[in-house]
Amino acid sequence: TWKVVNGGGTINASTGLFTGGTKTGTFVSTIEASTGGVQGYASVTITHGAVAKVTVSPATVKLKAATTAQFSATVYDQYNNLITGKAIVWSTSTGAGSVDTRGLYKSWHL
Asked: CA–CA separation, 78 vs 11, rounded Å?
């Protein structure tokens, strides 16, 4: 028979078909197969899904002309798991300043 003993997903007890859960991580010795009182174990690593949400911080700033503000972006999958290492493409549409590749916004002198 099959069972999940340390998280990471669910398993069909008769077929051994494993379905990964929504939490990312490595689940050591989480899948157990047993017969005749003898068990064997396998580990599973669950990785994040596709990008589903990007949050920008700060959400709002108030600047004087010719000053700067630093923004950062945090990326999540559909299960709210943090995704690291994604390139962020910054842009602005206000016409009142510019933003560089690191999220540094510079307001123009009007």
From this structure: 22
